[in-house]
Amino acid sequence: MPLHDAYQHQEADGFKQDVLTGLASLPKSIPPKYFYDERGSQLFAEICRQPEYYLTNSEVKILQENAEEMADRIGPGALFIEYGSGASEKIRILLNALQDMVAYVPVDISKEYLQQATQKLAVDYPQFKILPVYADYTHEFALPPIAAAIDATKVVFLPGSTVGNLEPMDARALLESIRTVVQPHGFLLIGVDVTKEKHILDCAYNDAAGVTAEFNKNLLSRINRELDGSFDLDTFLHRAFFNQDLNRIEMHLVSEKDQFVSVANQRFRFHKGESIHTENSYKYPLEEFRQLAAQAGMKRVAYWLDSQGWFSVQLFQVG
Ligand SMILES: C[S@@+](CC[C@H](N)C(=O)[O-])C[C@H]1O[C@@H](n2cnc3c(N)ncnc32)[C@H](O)[C@@H]1O
Known about the structure:
By secondary structure, the protein is α/β, with parallel strands linked by helices. It has 10 helices and 14 strands.
């Protein structure tokens, strides 16, 4: 299946630059989008299967129970564009409900995984036009010419609480750019994790099988492999906790000793206990997220919660 490559026009050297800048900063940090090489994407799919990671189960149930109503609200003949499509599993629920979807455009930064996921999807759903795009959606990117030429209601689908990985200001900027993609009458269908008790959140990001820890440390393996890094993975610990003041899960990799690490011929000093901040996952009260989207010019027209009220899927329209 041909892959529309919008990434090569974005930042060819972005990974190296961002890692070197992030390791030279205090505190050290690396943007979470770099978790997702092929192995990182596989590990994320495994995280979704862990019992503590309620986010996937809750969102899947919401989509299964409400897909018909979502389809009615969106109307016939829509073009779906999924930002951060990963395994492209959740879209299957919508493909089943929206039989007249004119095309599905999965967009992801993880190239090989995107190719594999969309090939599987194309085998299972041969009746749909599937047009994968390799791109970083935090930068402007072009849709494949076939998709751009389709005159249909556009719907950006952004499940998985992926929006929570952005700082609220950046989330607002992304929603603004989505508005320009779907206007004049299009929609945003988005999965947003809801604020809840600390222990549920802490458990979700510290699964007993250690998959989230492996996912976090895979970033160091990727740096070792792609940027000639010298990280000793056994000397870094996965740490994830809910920061109640900032309403976000923070993920870190903590150095267990004083050490130097080299990356792309540059040396970086770590003190014992010093961390690399690798991810935030913001949680939003329902009203707060409505307001954030309103600032970006999107009007909430519906939302659905799971039975525990732990996760939400929200539908916004330009306006
Ligand atoms: C939290 S996972 C969600 C995956 C899937 N949508 C789900 O709901 O299970 C985030 C996905 O977004 C992709 N991603 C993260 N940052 C991205 C970026 N800046 N541009 C494109 N894709 C990105 C990752 O590769 C990954 O597949």
